Amino acid sequence: MPPVGELIWFAAALAGAGVVAGLLAGLFGIGGGAILVPVFYQIFGLIHIDEAVRMHLAVGTSLAIIVPTSIRSFLAHKARGAIDVELLKSWILPIPFGVVAASLIVASVSSAGLRAIFAGIAIIVGLRMLFNRQSWRLGSDLPPNPARAGVGALIGLLSALMGIGGGVLNNTFMTLFGRPVHQAVATSSGVGVLISVPGLFGYVWAGWGAAGLPPFSTGYVNWVAAALIIPVTLLVAPIGVRLAHALEKRQLEIWFGLFMMVVAARFFYSLT
């Protein structure tokens, strides 16, 4: 068993990550997984969780936390009437389809492979946050099916592989096709629900019976870590929602983009 000092540091670090994740959930319409996954990976290493399952456990636990966080954020945004309900309805099948495909990949990919996937997507997300401009447009309205369904499936696939709620990807999609950023953020909270719920079950299935998992884990989901962070994220997510409707987020986007680039570099370095 780890020393008491390590356990206290473990709990404090997770609580801090939970505050950041909850704020991001409301502010950017994301589940905070982009913060939680690298934090989990490092902290799980400090308590000597097997490297073979550490990254899988970080991603799966992140998705489990995003379930209540995204639901809370979705309800808060829905109360403001800013969500594109039609888009969410059109993605009820495509997004979970992408999540299921991700679960099949996770069941067979190595820890190094999953870190490489996370780092690759993190670079794309980081560049988007650093260089995105609200004036960029690909069209005046969202594309119809089958293109729309394909985008939904891709968002589900990439988000589930990375352990994120899909907000950054959906925000990019919606704003590129002329939708207001506040509507994109609000709708992304619903996208997070469509990703995290099937993602939770997918990672439980993918890791069922895996060797090296720590106590209180079901597949690739550790419930101790989830229990420590979920209450914090639920408390602060509504604060993020209020900030989303009141603040200029460009500086925050830049810092978040830089963070993602550093995380990507860290994971790529771990592969050498």
From TrEMBL:
It is a multi-pass membrane protein. The keyword Cell membrane applies. The chain crosses the membrane at residues 12-41, 53-71, 91-107, 114-131, 151-173, 185-208, 220-240, 252-269. It is found in: Cell membrane; Membrane. It comes from the Bacteria. Keywords: Cell membrane, Membrane, Transmembrane, Transmembrane helix. InterPro entries: TM_pro_TauE-like (IPR002781). Belongs to the 4-toluene sulfonate uptake permease (TSUP) (TC 2.A.102) family. This is Probable membrane transporter protein. It comes from Hoeflea ulvae.
